[in-house]
Design brief:
Elements lengths: L1 H9 L2 H9 L3 H10 L2 H14 L3 H9 L2 H11 L2 H15 L10 H14 L2 H17 L3 H7 L3 H10 L2 H14 L3 H9 L2 H11 L2 H14 L3 H9 L3 H11 L2 H5 L8 H10 L2 H16 L2 H17 L1 H9 L3 H10 L2 H14 L3 H9 L2 H12 L2 H15 L3 H9 L3 H10 L2 H14 L3 H9 L3 H10 L2 H14 L3 H9 L3 H10 L2 H15 L2 H9 L2 H11 L2 H14 L6 H18 L2 H15 L2 H9 L2 H11 L2 H16 L6 H10 L7 H12 L5 H9 L2 H11 L3 H14 L3 H9 L3 H10 L2 H15 L2 H9 L3 H7 L5 H14 L3 H9 L3 H10 L2 H14 L3 H7 L1
Helix pairs in contact: 1-4, 3-4, 4-7, 6-7, 6-8, 7-8, 8-9, 9-12, 11-12, 12-15, 14-15, 17-22, 20-21, 21-22, 21-24, 23-24, 24-27, 26-27, 27-30, 29-30, 30-33, 31-34, 32-33, 35-36, 36-39, 38-39, 38-40, 39-40, 39-41, 40-41, 40-42, 40-43, 41-44, 43-44, 43-45, 44-45, 45-46, 46-49, 48-49, 49-52, ...
């Protein structure tokens, strides 16, 4: 119980300081060390709430929390591992803590996170570990002891670019130590580093080269590096960074010793020296010489990255682009193949674009290229587009989209794949998205989604998502009749196609003119089914579409018929956001008299009632609003279903008008003993008493006091009414209330005084004088309640004496003469009890 309370309090940031200052950390750490599993998880959540503040992080470190967290990260249950890793991540980000944690402790924490942390944590931790190594040489030895090398190498193989860069940087620092260098090599690190030289970013290639350079200091490692074919990659990097004079020094051992040894084993110097002559041949030779030269260049560009980079340095791009424009068919075909190999980096794409190759490539696609040339042209255009939006804009303006769309219809599979991949790259620009949307070509992309290869589906889906991202394009897509195709994906597609279709409909449905067509395509029933059986993303997307469809009232009946039950299920079992969305849709349906009964039949009332009591503040407000419509505006709701939400709607925080309507509606069921018992069981007494005590209007007061007396069905409820402080309010109403309020206050006091234990409290609060005063009125119903209340008070000597002193006997005697038979019966009881009092005997004589 204490942990639950601390957890609830710690959610509020302002409470955390008080909790920490109150000395909570030591016992919490004790529980973390030896408590049960569930207790540990709660403690972790509490400490995580503390860790939002730098000072509290320092406090946790001073209490040596990190070793416990490391133990949980490595050996705890799954939930404990995740929570401990999250907290450990926070603590490792804590700045200078004045010696609160040693370098070794922090290093151990980082290693633990590196082993089983999240993707984001691993990346940050790797960089942090690198910073520690730079600041403290002793960390190197500690790192090996903590077995940090295997997870770092694994990160190098499988991580993101940033994670790979971080891991390689740390390994670089560690490799300065001879024993650690051997350990790095034993983890099969070299193949991964060689792979980075081929596929990594420029920065990754630099770091990988540096690490390979260090590893190559050992003979065994150097042999493995050569076997992995690293020479061309190494030389390519060096050649790109040195002048011609510098290049000549590569093979000299006194320049870069470890690399020089590798270069000597390759024996490619003759080819390297020939490359400038080959480029000159393509530039200045005759037709046959140009053909032979471009064939050699294509072969070299295919062979290795080393040759590709040297060819670029030798300005081979310009003559190749010129042959692409002006050469014969063979020269064009081979030039295109060579350019495909050479156009790898962004700088080369830009250069070849400047040379004017784009219009030539587009022209080949449009009319006079062979099938092979078209394939090469679209592949080359695709390489221009990747990661370079500026070139994409040029392609659109040069008219690349129509021939690419043409390939989607008439090309063979490879051409279709390359075309849709290029179109996908182009859709990163607004111009391309607009042109494709206006051209009515979205249906082609949808056809690929339905029947294309996996790659074609992937690129078509990405392109479509970008196209429908803007409202203007959505309108164009709708005008082209594409909604029916997308709706069909949702109804009959595979799981991935359904998800894509839903994502697209979410964007389309936000435009009012599209909603009618979406609804007409019969998707409501499919959306309802997905709310029950779809993936979590599909449920969220489906309820989002339904919410948009209920913006107007046109489709409410269809949504209620097909989807109400599924919406109720999502309201009960969905995530918080899904509950809110489903609740908003149901609230809209509940406001429609034609849909209200269906929503009620599908069981919405109990679910909303639970939400009104246990949900978030936003969920509670939504639930109250919907219950108001379902229960207070609905008809033919069974009492057992109506009573619980009516009591919920009496909550003090509810709108006054809703409260008034709820208690008025609740009164309809108060004449039935079973219904009253159910109200009492559900806690209606406390709610109604609170309503009476907080009433601000005549109507609120009247409704509350009317209901209160009816709820006093036994001594237990009567005592509760008294104990919760309602008697002073009832007495005040006897004095100053309206006629109805006096009548119902007297009625309630009659019911409450039936429990003898309450009578003393009622008399102490001064009820007798106003009760006696009311006896002189002419209201038969009021007099009956007053007489019955006084009759209950006459059972005690002290109360009889008080009644006599307040002059109760004369009006009672008068009622005995003038009242109805029922009133006379109750009056006789009161007078009979008073007959034992001397005052009565004096009056009677």
């Amino acid at each position: 119980m204490a942990l639950n309370l601390l957890l609830s309090l710690s959610v509020n940031y302002e409470n955390c300081s008080d909790i920490v200052q109150g000395g909570a950390i030591p016992p919490l750490i004790t529980i973390l060390r030896s408590g049960a599993g569930g207790q540990k998880e709660k403690v972790l959540d509490i400490l995580k709430n503390f860790s939002q503040d730098e000072d509290k992080c320092k406090e946790l470190l001073r209490y040596k929390t990190t070793p416990l967290l490391v133990e949980l990260v490595q050996n705890g249950a799954e939930l404990q591992k995740e929570a401990a890793a999250s907290l450990l991540d926070k603590l490792t980000q804590c700045k200078d803590v004045d010696g609160a944690a040693t370098s070794a402790e922090k290093n151990t924490s980082l290693v633990a996170l590196l082993q089983i942390g999240s993707t984001e944590q691993k990346s940050r931790v790797a960089w942090e570990l690198g910073n520690l190594l730079a600041a403290d040489d002793t960390c190197s030895a500690a790192s090996v002891q903590d077995d940090v090398i295997p997870p770092l190498v694994n990160l190098l193989r499988t991580g993101s670019s940033d994670e790979k860069l971080a891991a390689a940087s740390v390994l670089n620092k560690l490799a300065a130590n001879n024993s650690i260098r051997d350990a790095i090599a034993r983890e099969k690190t070299i193949p991964s580093l060689v792979g980075l030289l081929q596929t990594g970013t420029d920065e990754l290639q630099d770091v990988a080269s540096d690490l390979l350079e260090i590893l190559a200091l050992d003979d065994a490692n150097r042999d493995e590096i050569v076997r992995e074919g690293v020479i061309p990659q190494f030389l390519a990097q060096i050649l790109l960074s040195l002048s011609d004079a510098g290049c000549a020094e590569i093979v000299r051992e006194d320049a870069i010793p470890s690399i020089a040894k590798l270069v000597q084993a390759a024996n490619k110097s003759e080819i390297i020296r020939l490359i400038p002559q080959v480029v000159s041949l393509v530039k200045y030779g005759d037709g046959k010489q140009k053909t032979e030269g471009v064939r050699i260049i294509e072969n070299l560009a295919t062979t290795s990255a080393l040759y590709r980079d040297i060819l670029s340095l030798e300005d081979a791009l310009r003559p190749l682009a010129n042959l692409l424009k002006n050469g014969n068919e063979e020269q064009k075909t081979i030039s295109m193949l060579a350019l495909e190999k050479l156009v790898i980096s962004g700088s080369k794409r830009s250069k070849i674009t400047i040379e004017g190759a784009i219009p030539v490539l587009i022209n080949l696609l449009l009319q006079n290229g062979s099938e092979g040339q078209k394939t090469s042209a679209v592949r080359l255009l695709g390489s221009f587009v990747s990661n370079d939006a500026a070139i994409g804009v040029i392609l659109v303006r040069e008219g690349a989209i129509p021939p690419l769309l043409g390939l989607l219809q008439t090309g063979y599979e490879e051409q279709k794949t390359l075309a849709v991949q290029t179109l996908c790259g182009l859709t990163s620009t607004d111009e391309a998205c607009s042109e494709i949307a206006r051209g009515g070509s979205v249906s082609m992309l949808i056809e690929l989604l339905r029947g294309g290869t996996e790659d074609q589906k992937k690129y078509a889906g990405r392109a479509l998502e970008r196209i429908v991202a803007s409202d203007e394009n959505c309108s164009e897509v709708a005008r082209e009749g594409t909604i029916s195709h997308i709706a069909e994906l949702v109804k009959t597609g595979t799981e991935s196609l359904k998800t894509f279709g839903l994502r697209t409909l979410v964007k389309l449905v936000r435009i009012a003119t599209n909603r009618e067509e979406i609804a007409r395509k019969g998707v409501c029933l499919e959306l309802a089914q997905l709310l029950r059986s779809g993936t979590d993303e599909q449920k969220t997307l489906a309820v989002t579409i339904l919410e948009e469809l209920t913006v107007g009232d046109e489709f409410s009946s269809e949504i209620a018929r097909d989807g109400s039950a599924s919406l109720v299920a999502l309201l009960r079992d969905g995530s918080e956001e899904q509950r809110l969305q489903a609740g908003r849709v149901l609230e809209k349906l509940a406001g429609d008299s034609a849909c209200r009964a269906q929503v009620t039949r599908d069981g919405a009332i109990p679910v909303f009632n639970t939400l009104a009591k246990t949900g978030t503040e936003e969920e509670k407000a939504l639930a109250v609003s919907t219950l108001n419509k379902l229960v207070l505006q609905g008809t033919d709701i069974p009492p057992e279903e109506a009573i619980p939400p009516l009591i919920t709607l009496l909550d003090p925080g509810t709108d006054e008008n809703i409260q008034a309507n709820a208690i008025r509606e609740l009164s309809r069921y108060a004449d039935n003993d079973e219904h009253l018992s159910e109200m009492v069981r559900l806690g209606a007494v406390a709610v109604v008493v609170m309503l009476l005590l907080r009433a601000k209007s005549v109507e609120q007061t009247t409704n509350a006091v009317r209901m209160l007396g009816r709820l006093a069905i036994d001594d237990t409820q009567s005592k509760q009414i008294t104990q919760q402080g309602s008697i002073p309010y009832l007495v005040a109403l006897l004095k100053t209330g309206t006629g109805d309020q006096k009548c119902w206050a007297a009625f309630t006091l009659w019911k409450v005084t039936a429990c003898e234990a309450n009578c003393d409290e009622i008399v102490r609060e001064g009820a007798i004088p106003p009760l006696v005063a009311l006896l002189r009125g002419l209201n038969e119903e009021l007099n009956t309640s007053v007489v019955r209340a006084l009759g209950n008070l006459t059972t005690t000597d002290a109360h009889r004496a008080e009644l006599s002193r307040e002059g109760a006997i004369p009006p009672l005697v008068e009622l005995l003469r003038t009242g109805s038979d029922e009133l006379k019966k109750h009056t006789l009881r009161a007078l009979g009890n008073l007959a034992t009092d001397d005052a009565y005997r004096r009056y009677d004589s």
